[in-house]
Amino acid sequence: MQLHPLPSRELHCGRHRLSLAQPQIMGILNVTPDSFSDGGRFLHSGAALQQAEMLLMDGASIIDIGGESTRPHAVPVSPEEEMARILPVIGAIIKRFDCIVSVDTSSPLVFEAAAQLGAVIWNDVRSLTRPGALECAVRWQLPVVLMHHRGEPSTMDQLANYQDVAAEVLAELAGLRERAVDGGLAPEKILLDPGFGFAKTAHQNMALLAQLWQLHELESPLLIGISRKRVLGELLGGAPVDQRVMAGAAAALMAVQQGVSIIRTHDVRATRECLKVYEAMANA
Asked: Which residue of the set 229, 244, 269, 272 is catalytic?
């Protein structure tokens, strides 16, 4: 596989500066009862705070906090419920740790409240398509992750129809990026996520993983989240969620080899150790 070095650039996240000259890790912290991997484990602020500390100690530079599951067929929750779940956790983490906090939400009301507490990245699986979301992002001018998606969690499995998955994901991400920029979001604030597991079969996910380098045509930093996802379980013959760690780390390495800047993962330590070997090789 051809190696694609990361671009030397810096992401401005409020008062934080994040170098993208080397791969960064975004640790996942789900404050939900029904997320596919860790639903219910971190509903209480104390447990969530302990998990955040562990993620940071293991090597995460970003903590991504979510209050609504987006797994296939997940039940939507109201912005009020999302805020009740995540705002106490965000406040506690920002008070205790000097780290970058990202919010995994599609609701502008939720992001607005989180940003007022000090969250500085908006990770939106629906790519600012909900009413008022783009306007909210433009007001704050903080980094936003736009993810490739089709439909909603209840319908996305029926929308995995592609002739050329990499080319079509690129084209659809280009449209999302153009919409955001035309709406007033600064281009340097945009990150792109190809959306592994969202409206894609196992074969399509792997074809996309092999061709991530093509997405550099869009000239935005790339973020991927494939950690513990169903596609890895299928590739491993039905392995349960907690036995997909090394497969996720391997996929992260393949992505970084193609110039992906940020890896979003549940398994920070395994990912960091894998990337340390890659960095040592690249710098030798």
From this structure: 229
